[in-house]
Amino acid sequence: MRTLINLLFVVHCFAFAEAQQVWDDFTTGPLKQITTLKAEKIKIEQPGKNILGGTRYITYNVTENPYQQLFQLTIQKGTLISSTGFGTASSMNITYGGNRERALNMDLSRYKTIKISLKGKTNFARVYLNMWSNGANRAFWRGNRENHLPFQGSINAMGVNSKKVISIPLEQLTAKKATTDSPSAFDIADVDSVLIQFYGFPATGVNYAIDKIWVE
């Protein structure tokens, strides 16, 4: 009986692992704290074992800083943390994969939802998703299907470090319209790159942390 129970437990764990694919848990690809008092664009390349495609590419854009407030970006204890000072807005792009030698060639046809776990967000922001397959063939998500509004809102109105998970149904992806020069041939079974965008604009003083990105 114990052998049967152990076998069922192993099968259950295997099935759960198959049902969920972690893209990034931010436990690898360390990032020492980056600080700046000026407007600038920061590009970071971080290889790691627990990262989709083996490398995390971050582009961070900080706007004008009229009050000389400190901006900080770091990865600590499995969490990517962004903190932008009063009067200053920012945006962050996280890219996985790419074209040619960086292509993921990832089959997402058996999955239903991309999920992003945030915690400690204290102001409004927008989250966008873009994916490409076979070159310029793109699909994107800008919000839910009902009103097409981008996700925005505070995790907790009082600024307490609670959690929120953004769910992006793959069925809500919109394929880029075909043109003569760029046919629309996005294939969910052959995704080469993923771009997730976190926009603080137009809000300033946005603080948030990302601790997991996955698909299930």
Automatic annotation (TrEMBL):
UniProt KW keywords: Signal
Highest taxon, organism lineage: Bacteria
Signal peptide bounds: 1-19
Protein's UniProt name: NADH:ubiquinone oxidoreductase intermediate-associated protein 30 domain-containing protein
Species of provenance: Leeuwenhoekiella blandensis (strain CECT 7118 / CCUG 51940 / KCTC 22103 / MED217)
Lineage, broadest ranks: Bacteria, Pseudomonadati, Bacteroidota, Flavobacteriia, Flavobacteriales
